[in-house]
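Posted in: Protein Modeling Q&A

I'm a second-year student putting together a small comparison for a lab meeting, and my supervisor asked me to include a predicted structure for Putative ABC transport system permease protein. I've never done this before, so apologies if this is the wrong subforum. The sequence is pasted below exactly as I got it from our records. If anyone can share the structure token output, I'd also love a short note on what stands out.
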Amino acid sequence: MLIMENVLLALAGLKSNIMRSLLTMLGIIIGIASVIAIMTVGNSITVMVNTQMQEMGANNLTVGVSAKSTSEETTSSGLHFGAGNRRSMDTEDYITDDMIDSFLEEYSDNIKYTLLSSTVGSGTAIDGDLYAYVNVVGYNEDYMEYNDPEILAGRTFIEKDYENAQKVCIVSDYFVNNMFDGDTSAALGSAVEISINGKYYTYYIVGVYEYDDSTWSSDSTEDTTTDLYIPYDTARTQLHTINDGYESFTLVTTIDTDSEEFADTVETYFNTMYYSNNDDYEVSVTSMASMIESMTTMIGTIELALAIIAGISLVVGGIGVMNIMLVSITERTKEIGTRKALGATNGSIRLQFITESVVICIMGGLIGIILGVVLGSVAATYMGYSASVSISAIIIAVAFSMAIGIFFGYYPANKAAKLNPIEALRYE
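Accepted answer (user: helix_wrangler)
Welcome! Here is the predicted structure, written out as tokens:
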């Protein structure tokens, strides 16, 4: 009951000095709003990054050949010596089909897809005044199934296309709009000539897929570069790498496989079986899950650092609250003396002024939360992210507001409680 009375007294005091109350709350409002806005933007970025990386494949493992680390010594002047120049990769350093097949045979239950891709290059298809920008990339059968493009017309690649390295391609609907005026029937079976770095490559269109423009915006679809898919071995033949091994490839693990643990298994298998006698190169495996975790940690660290900097204004706001409470005590010295003369204990006087301090901070905190959510949402939307308000930040902000009220209100409240009632009644 006493607490409720103190709250009503505090609200009455705020109402009687609205301008002073608002100025007192300003530091709290700015501090809370800054923290909430920063954490809202940070949370929005984190959600967006996680979503995009999950779409890229949280259970993907990139297996690649990398140079072995060697010890180097550094002189006092900063010069390095000891390792020397490493030799460039030879044929025996690459991962071969036999290595991959042997691995897949042993761990078939853990692998859903083996993704192989090879980029021929970015170029232009030109037919008179018509043109289209494309990125020619070769995919293996698993990669096409994993990507699962939406085929609008024609077909996807068949087994013969992969085995015989056929010069066939699947183009986007943007490509068809530019080169065939949107007529997919005219596009299917037609030959297209692509110029890449002065070389010309001819492919025959067997399918048209729907281009996903959600990740890219352009003023004109004519200037949008889209992927032109070809069979993997077709790309390797044109790049003259058909007889080489692989410098890297990607594994997609099954749902029930822990990708981070399995990454160590893959690395150990290849290095033990095939690279133990290679002095210069080894196989290293990167987990997409670990990349997501690292990215989230990095964003969280930056977000926390900015929030702490913004939170400094909360301390300034708390000092402002303490200052106003000291002024309030001076103004109400006679009131305090009267209450003590009527039997009010030091504890009740202390509780009254701490309650007033907490009410000021909570009201300032609530205004700051509303302002912070609005500012954070506007900023996230302006930056192109979907606004994601951090509920934990709001809870922390409210708790922090109460803590500031108690911490910075205790000294003035304790000073009021210790006033001598006789001297307080004499105060003019």
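A couple of things worth pointing out for your meeting: The chain has two domains: 2-53+293-426, 117-238. The chain has 14 helices and 13 strands.
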